[in-house]
Amino acid sequence: MSKILKAVLISAYSTVVFQLLKTLIVNNTEEIIEIEYMIPTPGTLKKMEWELRKLKNNITAISMNFKMPKRLPTDLKYILKWTQAFSHYDSPIFKNGQEALLKYNCTYRNCYFTGDKSLLLDIRYFDAILFDVENYWDYNPILRSPHQKYIFVGLESADNFPVILPKYDSYYNLTWTYKLDSDIFGAYLIVLDKKGNIVGPKVNMEWINPMLPTSDNIRKKLLVKRKAAAWFVSNCKTKGRREVVAKNLSKELLKYGLSIDIYGWCGKLICSKDHMYDCLEDLENDYYFYLAFENSLAEDYVTEKILYPLLHYTVPIVYGGANYSRFLPPGSYIDAGKLNASQIASLMSQAIMNPKLYAEYFRWHNHYVYKEATEVMKACNLCNVLNTIKVKTSRTKFRKWWNVNKTNRTAAEARRSEDIASLHSYQPAHWKITAAD
Ligand SMILES: *[C@@H]1O[C@H](CO)[C@@H](O)[C@H](O)[C@H]1NC(C)=O
Ligand SMILES: *[C@@H]1O[C@H](CO)[C@@H](O)[C@H](O)[C@H]1NC(C)=O
Ligand SMILES: *[C@@H]1O[C@H](CO)[C@@H](O)[C@H](O)[C@H]1NC(C)=O
Ligand SMILES: *[C@@H]1O[C@H](CO)[C@@H](O)[C@H](O)[C@H]1NC(C)=O
Ligand SMILES: *[C@@H]1O[C@H](CO)[C@@H](O)[C@H](O)[C@H]1NC(C)=O
Ligand SMILES: *[C@@H]1O[C@H](CO)[C@@H](O)[C@H](O)[C@H]1NC(C)=O
Ligand SMILES: *[C@@H]1O[C@H](CO)[C@@H](O)[C@H](O)[C@H]1NC(C)=O
Ligand SMILES: *[C@@H]1O[C@H](CO)[C@@H](O)[C@H](O)[C@H]1NC(C)=O
Ligand SMILES: *[C@@H]1O[C@H](CO)[C@@H](O)[C@H](O)[C@H]1NC(C)=O
């Protein structure tokens, strides 16, 4: 007895009709698979919020008494995206429904994404709520069910998006971030072995040692390179001060008659987004090294830009807050966070003059393959965890985990945290703060 009931309710009676739907659900006489739209009359939710505010001091009591409604005989897990992440609008995860999970043939496909807070009328009916660190202009839910999981989503650097308010120290049930010890895997890249198994990145990564010598095919390919280093960059002044590191390195390279070709807003060369393919081809054919410098320094914050050199037979010179041995095999890169400019310039010059030495950087090709961790893949991880982890109390000392040794923020950040604090005391929904990058 399965019946698809698509309810499009745009009227003052939506609440009444929803009550009827709920009775149907409780009586188990109908199986509602999908309620496509549930649009309460303008102001309904606002009115509810105001009512709740009046009860502010009794909210804990109300929460304790909350019982999950009896559900339809489906095991669908409803995931609410609390605020749309502005920089991820195009990614599959942020498409509503189950498309992402079906597309990637995930093991678990019984998750349903939505950005519509009123889809189930009561926010407590959602199985999970995603809170994106980039979005702090919507105030958080007032009522919370002990059955649902609050999930912290962090794809942007903790240094640019610190979490400051003490209330978050035990707030989220699960973390879904680039940090490698997150509950749900969210790194920008994956390392596979030659059989296609995902082996990294990991906190305690163990690399094959020793690695086999670089193949003749790759050696031959490397012989045509003629230029020292490239850098594609558009953000010229960063918190991590990578521009200073690059400038220092340029100075040292000059002593060897070498230079860095800078493409983008911060340099003289042009590589438009539409021509990225051509630029990467140039990188592969012409350049020995690539500057994979992160714009901010935070633990495990290694973005997909490191894949440019890795996927294009170029050696990455890395700079960031990560312990790169979690991400890259030994001997495959140069860490500008550990060496000074003159040491790096010397290593580069030696490698450029000695093809045998340069080829050593590519031994990893015998054992590993790098890939971008697609958003769809990440959606699978989320649905897997929601199906396998039933109960998870929040991480205490969350801020220490996310901010990592940087709990003492600057005055500007403290000011912002005050703004956020006032936001959480119910500013109008249209209130916005622009991101601080
Ligand atoms: C649901 O069941 C109750 C009692 O079992 C009954 O009074 C009510 O009419 C039923 N509602 C519907 C919509 O069938
Ligand atoms: C809050 O709860 C207390 C005791 O449970 C009750 O006396 C009081 O009337 C409640 N306040 C409101 C606004 O409902
Ligand atoms: C999806 O996975 C199932 C089993 O896991 C497999 O039988 C099927 O061929 C896969 N479909 C696609 C399109 O990959
Ligand atoms: C970096 O990670 C490697 C491997 O995971 C570990 O052996 C090493 O101790 C770490 N280094 C630091 C400074 O934490
Ligand atoms: C850059 O070079 C200057 C002068 O040699 C040095 O003082 C500074 O520490 C260097 N900065 C970085 C980030 O390497
Ligand atoms: C770079 O580091 C090496 C080794 O620690 C040191 O001998 C050298 O003086 C340093 N160079 C600069 C410019 O700081
Ligand atoms: C989520 O965390 C909160 C706060 O620690 C806790 O009360 C709640 O029971 C947890 N929910 C689940 C489903 O584990
Ligand atoms: C954070 O601080 C602790 C102790 O002060 C230190 O052991 C640890 O290495 C630091 N972590 C990072 C990523 O700097
Ligand atoms: C935090 O920073 C402020 C200003 O920079 C300083 O006065 C204070 O001592 C610092 N606190 C800690 C715990 O480091």
TrEMBL record:
Cross-referenced Pfam families: Glyco_tran_10_N, Glyco_transf_10
Stretches assigned to the Fucosyltransferase N-terminal domain: 77-188
Signal peptide (UniProt feature, chain positions): 1-19
Top enzyme category: transferase
Recorded topology in the membrane: Single-pass type II membrane protein
Keyword Signal among record annotations: yes
Cellular compartment(s): Golgi apparatus, Golgi stack membrane
Keywords carried by this UniProt record: Glycoprotein, Glycosyltransferase, Golgi apparatus, Membrane, Signal, Signal-anchor, Transferase, Transmembrane, Transmembrane helix
Gene3D superfamilies on file: Glycosyl transferase family 10, C-terminal domain (3.40.50.11660)
Domain Fucosyltransferase C-terminal: 225-393
Main localisation: Golgi
Pathway annotation: Protein modification; protein glycosylation
InterPro entries (alphabetical): Glyco_tran_10_C (IPR055270), Glyco_tran_10_N (IPR031481), Glyco_trans_10 (IPR001503), GT10-like_C_sf (IPR038577)
E.C. designation(s): 2.4.1.-
PANTHER family: ALPHA-(1,3)-FUCOSYLTRANSFERASE C-RELATED (PTHR48438:SF1)
Record family assignment: Belongs to the glycosyltransferase 10 family.
Protein name: Fucosyltransferase
Gene: LOC113512179
